[in-house]
Design brief:
By secondary structure, this protein is mainly alpha-helical. The protein is built from four helices and no strands. Helix 2 packs across helix 3. The relative contact order is 0.19.
Amino acid sequence: MLGRAWRCQCPRCGIGALYYKDVRMFKNCPECGLSYYPESGFYLGGMILNYIITVWIIIAVYLISLLLPDFLPWSINVRILLWMAFTVALSLLFWRHTRSLWLALNYWVEPHDIESSSSGS
């Protein structure tokens, strides 16, 4: 399940792609038809995962940088700008993978089939 999430593939079949462009997701899996948008606001959890992962990495890099105080001889303002740019870049880098991970975790906890969701009424 985690491998499929890392490769941004469908959590059910493992064949269908989640994205057809850099940040545009399919509405359903092109192979098995699994809905990638089970409900409105579904990917809020993915955004929270993205935030948590980004913050942990930023904190770890910051703590390591405290061990090397004279590594970058730049002013504090330049360092703050670099930290901000690094944080934004890191968050954008993980954006696709955290959405994919959130979908995979949801499918792992609550797997659903096409037959049961289409014949619900």
